[in-house]
Amino acid sequence: MNSEQQFNANPFENYHCIYWVFTQLCNDFCDHCYNSSGPKGERISHKDCMAIIDNLPGKLDQIILSGGEPLADKKLLYAILDKLREKYASNTFITLQFNGDLLTKAILQILLDKGVNRFSIASIDRYHKKKGERKSILAQMFEDHGIVFHKGAPEIQKPFSELPRTYGFFGSTEEMWLGGNWARGRAFDNNIWKKDGHYNFCKLHSGAISFLDSTDNSVMQELSIQLWKINPCCPGTVEPMGDARKEKISEVLQRVSSSKVMQKLNKGNAYGMGESIGISADEGFERAMKLGNICLWCDEFFNRHFDMKSQIPKNTNTKNQFSEGS
Ligand code: SF4
Ligand code: SF4
Question: Domains (ranges, CATH) in the chain?
Answer without folding.
Answer: 3-194 (3.20.20), 256-313 (no CATH)
